[in-house]
Amino acid sequence: MPRKNEPASATRRYIADRLKALRLFRGMSQDALADKLGLTFQQIQKYEKALNRISSDTLVTIAAALGVNPCYFFEGIEGASTSDLPPPISASEFELLAAYRGLPTTGKTSALTTMRNLATMFSTPANEAAPQKETA
């Protein structure tokens, strides 16, 4: 059993960091998350600072409140198998998603069409050919 002032394990610190990053990405305050979970904001603070361990039941509840699979918190930990999940979302993908969510419906349709066109354009075999010389 760990002593009271013993530093958090690397795994607990990793999960705490992912919890805080996801909460901030969702634009949620510690108070708002605490309210959703029936906890105090101080408890959320302790989880995010890795001062308190998060039980499996609480982690599942937190994941649901933040809209992710509980496996999200373990992605990237050595030995954790998440082969059935898509790869973790990068910071730029989070930024893109956040911008997309801020658009009105018509803007979302246009953005999605543009992204599909770009994906098609950059995935064609012609783009895998040798780079073309720039013209002045």
Describe this structure in words.
With 136 residues, the protein is mainly α. It has helices spanning 10-25, 30-37, 41-48, 56-66, 91-101, 105-123. The chain has 6 helices and no strands. The longest helix is centred in the C-terminal third of the chain and has 19 residues, at 105-123. The N and C termini lie far apart (70 Å).
- Helical fraction: 40-55%
- Write down the domain tally: 2
CATH class of the largest domain: Mainly Alpha
> What's the number of helices?
6
Q: Any low-confidence stretches, pLDDT <50, length ≥5?
A: none
CATH homologous superfamily placement of the largest domain: lambda repressor-like DNA-binding domains
The largest sheet is: none
Structural class: mainly alpha
Question: What is the typical, i.e. mean, pLDDT?
Answer: 83
> What is the overall silhouette?
elongated
The CATH topology of the largest domain is given as 434 Repressor (Amino-terminal Domain)
CATH architecture of the largest domain: Orthogonal Bundle
What pattern of helices and strands is seen along the backbone? HHHHHH
> Roughly how many Å apart are the termini?
70 Å
Rg calc: 20 Å
